[in-house]
Design brief:
Length: 254
Amino acid sequence: MTTENPWRGKVAIVTGGSSGIGEATALALAAQGANVLITGRTAARLEAVAGQSASIEALQIDSADPESGALIVAKALEIWGRLDLVVNNAGAGHPMPMAGYSAEAISAMAAVNITSPSVLVKAAHEALRETKGAVVNISTAAAKNAVPMIAHYTATKAALEQLTRAWAIEMAPDGIRVNAIAPGPVKSGALTGMMGLPDEMAQQIEAQEAAQVPLGRRGVADDIVPWVLRLGSSDNAWLTGQVLAVDGGWALRS
């Protein structure tokens, strides 16, 4: 017996879709028949991902822009006329010891990790209500523990998890499900990219984190993507307000 593909003809938005988990999610959705709008700040990277599938369109936009949510949703509706899934994957973070705290740096991180998902969900609400769609937020397993040096990154991601639970209640009457995934240490280039660490330091941290994972290795994007699709699928009709750690047991360590 064959099962109908829940993604064929559906439309998804994936922020931060030009690399890492966002890129892998967009390609997986397109491979299953969905149309996908990816966003990011770097045109060349966006074009490289969109060039891999005729079902992927790219929009160069900065998630820190307070107008980004309305612009992203408008673009998806202009192209495909519907919206079924929002994946809030774009993130901002970098090492920041207490001596380096600044209002500007903290505000910039919060703009991407808290404000951007909020304005995007607000803009997408009506379209998601029409399709009984879903939202999947990408957090981090590090938000469950105290992690000096990246305290504001983990704090803003913890805030995103709290928003996940609040949105799940607020949007439930409209049939919209909201869940989050908290990945553990994943090989995504985030340490040298988003975090801005030198290669040698990034390699040291990667080796240290791999040794801490009970299942014995760092994750890869393909460990995370199936759960994004599962939580976002219309087949998942009765799960909302949950934060799922996909981390090889990393957050359980003492």
